[in-house]
Amino acid sequence: MRPAALGRASRYSQGRVFGISHPDRFRRCFSHEISQETCSSVAKLLQWKPTPDHVADNPPQVVINGFVRSVRSMKSIRFVALGDGSSLAPLQAIVDTKHAEGLTVGAAVRLSGAWVSSPGASQSHELHVSKVEVLGPSDAKTFPIQKKYQTPEFLRTLPHLRPRTPLNAALLRFRSDAIASLTQFFASRTFTQTHPPIITSSDCEGAGEVFTVTPATETADQANTDAKKDDSFFRSKKYLTVSGQLHLEALSQSVGNVWTLSPAFRAERSDTSRHLSEFYMLEAEMSFVDNLGAVMDLTEDMLRFLAKSLYETAAVKELLSRSSQSGSDLAPLDEVRRRWEGLMDPSWPRITYTEALGLLQKNAEMFTEKPTWGMNLQSEHEKFIAMSVGGGQKPVFVTDYPRDIKAFYMRPNQPTAEQPNATVECFDLLVPEVCEIAGGSMREHRLEPLQDAMKRHGILKPAMDVNGNVIPDADGNGPTSNLDWYVDLRRWGCPPHGGFGLGFDRLLCYLSGVQTIRDIVAFPRWVGRCDC
Amino acid sequence: MRPAALGRASRYSQGRVFGISHPDRFRRCFSHEISQETCSSVAKLLQWKPTPDHVADNPPQVVINGFVRSVRSMKSIRFVALGDGSSLAPLQAIVDTKHAEGLTVGAAVRLSGAWVSSPGASQSHELHVSKVEVLGPSDAKTFPIQKKYQTPEFLRTLPHLRPRTPLNAALLRFRSDAIASLTQFFASRTFTQTHPPIITSSDCEGAGEVFTVTPATETADQANTDAKKDDSFFRSKKYLTVSGQLHLEALSQSVGNVWTLSPAFRAERSDTSRHLSEFYMLEAEMSFVDNLGAVMDLTEDMLRFLAKSLYETAAVKELLSRSSQSGSDLAPLDEVRRRWEGLMDPSWPRITYTEALGLLQKNAEMFTEKPTWGMNLQSEHEKFIAMSVGGGQKPVFVTDYPRDIKAFYMRPNQPTAEQPNATVECFDLLVPEVCEIAGGSMREHRLEPLQDAMKRHGILKPAMDVNGNVIPDADGNGPTSNLDWYVDLRRWGCPPHGGFGLGFDRLLCYLSGVQTIRDIVAFPRWVGRCDC
To answer: What family classification does the UniProt entry report for this protein (chains A, B) (predicted)?
Structure first.
């Protein structure tokens, strides 16, 4: 018996493949010798423009999969617009009425036919269909996604169907290209890509805007009872992470420079175009770095690389073309172009918070809220900085904010004669219209100053079980803080280090021209909304 | 006033950089002209072997950052082993005792000196240190990570410090390389990388092994009260995703072939070496694919690409070298090598469940549990298949399992004369020792058969609010199922499609030789354990 032979003889060995799984086949699509091969995508087929000379007697035969976007009926033929998410532009297919059964809006079909020059002005070539296979029928009367204009608000009620609109397909491809570009950027700098945990012990400085995590089988009552027996699932309260930074710091003490693109969560009850309860954070941490300038250089280099590598991609070209259409829900083309050009600009201004305050105060009459040193910059202030310092195009780094309005882990500056107030080595990166798009800092890497800062911020608190009872530490020596482990990182060999965090979905909004973060994320979650 | 000029004059513009942020500097490290430039990593410096001819009078001066792994004291000098996570091997530094203050185990230091041939057998070159900067001191007496052997169980109690061991640094680099390789593979096949949601409405077929998500500010009481007012955070119970598959199916109806590497969660109370409560799933979904063979081809091609692209990387070579050491906690070298060679093998056997049952029944005396058609394969059975069909090396696809032991969404096979029993178009991918490493299927893409299957599996259930009350649908026409949206995908143009899911951490275990999944994840979470 040679059991391995069983496998080779299996029914799958010679399996015919509908789609395209081998790069070879992408090429074959354009080879005249092999006709009737399924073409990999509408986008690729639209690029193929065989001249009439090539095809005079023998037009190339192709097979293409896709969804019917619209059907226009003439006397004996139908004009079918076919899309498959690979391009905004549809493919025009001409189908004899006798083959058109089941060619309804939304249907998933496979069309075979000749790829020939089109007399129409809208396309160079069109498909003269000889065979129609309806792979997934659609009841067009009830299909909620229609070719006519549909508001973003309406589409948002259908997150499972919304990706099928050509614009949303382009946004999905844009996101994918952006992830690949970032992966390439960080690999070229030998940053290690990591997966910090999602379920964590830290409740984010007790701010309360976190989600807790409990097994579904543990009702509140059970959890209480079990907790008394020290038998709840994780033995103490656990939360969804609000940022991977603290864990990244631990990992950067292992492999040096690290980054991640991973989900983060906030249980904010705010109902704005800029916040979601679930979002992707792009975070990086640099080790053995003693100057905030290096962290800003990294942020700037990364965003510039991303912009340059994506600007000429099909998805971005399509999004820009959509921006230019009247009645588009995207930001106007000029504005979106300026955003890209700003990111590609070779030098971005850097000013301190104190310098920024000076500028604001010289123009105090422009603002509803009077600019005062020590305050958080309001949206109106950030907009002014972005316009006056960045010229409404370049991103602007604002650095060295007052200590008391920033996070406990940021490293303080030495007070000087010019700047006697307590500030920290941090930056916000401001861009026009959207304002803060990224933030970073040097981290306090010294043990005692960190502990002092935590006390000042009221963070050195005991760990508590699900009933709110203090958990004694292993030695029974008193309360254990949820962040003891973070303090530990400073106990044994903590080099100077710093990093940044950037809201990935917000960045994609900014560069695509999408006006709200709810429309850049396929399945957005915010207060009151978590469909599917 | 030209405010932009402010930025250029800022204190950060000329910032001195400790670490290396520009690729240029990587090169400069090896340029003789520019001495005293910080070298990018211990790994790079160890590769640099200037010959004595080059350096006779003027040995190259370098600066290197890292952590002290060990110190050996001689009369007037110290031998310091320096590591920075970039290599298993440390760098040997020789420091005059008068400069050695603060050079304690664990300390983060910056060493400057001459890079010269070493008389020792363990290294070709060593650093003769002229300057020591202690950037982060370490109290060596209390530092829990010691150079001597420490058990995996002990290290697991210190997840925030464990990454600092050379082995764990290599595992982090291995994970990073694997992510980059997968990104490259899928980009080359024009698969779109996506981010399916983490918080979902589906409780995974009601199996109960899910985590629920609630805002920390919502106590159970409040949640109950608020829910009655339809005012709980998400208005109904929400869960952490157990798999992105259902959402990937929606996205594949937009852009065709899609994939994701994202977190998934199970609230299993099992305490094994193969399960975590939080883990990364690699999932892909192919659209317009009508044959399970294509899904297996993709799985196989991906794993083969991954293995080939990683096998010669530094991290993998280091892990293999560690496997070969006696007393290592990793699987033996021969075994790990066989795993890599199996994945790189150009053809993997494929057999049906029914064929597998035949093999098992011929050897029934070998098993504790008698092999019977319709049963789930037990670990002993899977091991036998992996050994007898895959020769203990090649991965083996087992296909077409009985319908009743598989998920509701799998597409049924047509019963035939030889196979009259109800089976579904699915596969498990078995590898020696670890058994199932991936699973995939064709999805039921037809509306009514899917609804029938959901009824049969008891899944078509009404949506419930946090109090367990049924939520009427928008029309008031009766209960809304949590999976109505998934059924909707079949209503309008659902092409044949299929995909697979693979436990990413488990795969990394398999290929690294790490014996438990708790040691491949930096911050592992399982029942009773969620540190940091």
So the answer is: Belongs to the class-II aminoacyl-tRNA synthetase family.
Of B138, B197, B528, the CB nearest to A492: B138
Tell me how far apart the alpha carbons of residues A107 and B488 are, in angstroms, rounded to a whole number: 13
pLDDT at A132 over 80: yes
Residue with tokens 């700098």: A189
Q: Which residues contact B514 (CB under 8 A, 6 or more apart)?
A: B171, B329, B330, B331, B508, B520
CA distance, residue B123 to nearest chain A CA (Å): 22
Q: Which of B108, B240, B521 sits opposite A494 (nearest CB)?
A: B108
- Tell me the mean pLDDT in the region A106-123: 94
B226 CB contacts (<8 Å, ≥6 apart)? B218, B232
B463 min Cα distance to partner chain A (Å): 11
pLDDT digits (tens, 9 = 90+) for A416-466: 898 899 999 999 999 988 889 999 999 999 999 999 999 888 887 656 666
Distance of CA A99 to the CA centre of its chain: 42
* N-term to C-term CA, chain A: 50
Q: Are B38 and B20 in contact (CB under 8 A)?
A: yes
Q: B220-223: which pairs have CB atoms within 8 A and are 24 or more residues apart? A: B220/A219, B220/A220, B223/B466
Q: Is the C-alpha dihedral spanning A328, A332, A334, A340 positive or negative?
A: negative
Does residue A158 register a pLDDT over 90? Answer: yes
From A156-170, A209-223, B456-470, the region with the lowest mean pLDDT: B456-470
Q: Distance from B277 to chain A by nearest Cα, in Å?
A: 9
Tokens of B419: 């196979």
Burial of residue A239 (number of CB atoms within 10 Å: 0-12, 13-18, 19+)? buried
> What is the count of residue pairs from A and B with beta carbons less than 8 Å apart?
478
Length of chain B: 532
pLDDT in tens, A381-430: 999 999 999 998 999 999 999 999 999 999 999 998 988 999 999 999 99
**What's the CA gap between B100 and B114, in Å, rounded?**
16
Residues of B in contact with A193 (CB under 8 A): 175-176, 179-180
Contact A291 B15 (CB under 8 A): yes
pTM: 0.92
State both tokens at A415: 């007070």
- Residues in chain B where the model's pLDDT stays below 70: 1-37, 52-56, 204-208, 218-231, 461-481
Q: 54-113 in A: which are within 8 Å (CB) of B?
A: 65, 67-68, 84-86, 106-108, 110
* Mean residue pLDDT across chain A: 88
pLDDT of A118 reads 92
User: CA B161, CA A251: separation in Å to the nearest integer?
Assistant: 9
Task: Determine the residue of chain A that is closest to B68 in CA distance.
Answer: A493
Residues 123 to 152 of A: which have CB under 8 A from any B CB? 135-139, 142-143, 145
User: Closest Cα of chain A to B5: distance in Å?
Assistant: 8
Give chain B positions within 8 Å (CB) of A65: 287-288, 495
- Closest residue of chain A to B108, computed from CA coordinates: A493
**In degrees, to the nearest 5, what angle opens at C-alpha A13 toward C-alphas A12 and A17?**
70
The answer to whether A322 touches A171, Cβ cutoff 8 Å, is no
Per-residue confidence (pLDDT) for residue A139, from 0 to 100: 94
Nearest-angstrom CA–CA distance, B108 and A288: 9
What number is the ipTM of this complex?
0.91
From the list B213, B292, B528, which residue is nearest A12 (CB)?
A: B292
- Model pLDDT for residues A23-64, shown as the tens digit of each residue: 333 333 333 333 445 778 999 999 998 876 665 678 899 999
| DSSP E strands, A142-270 | 192-193, 199-200, 211-215, 239-240, 258-265
Tens-digit pLDDT profile for residues A502-523: 999 999 999 999 999 999 999 9
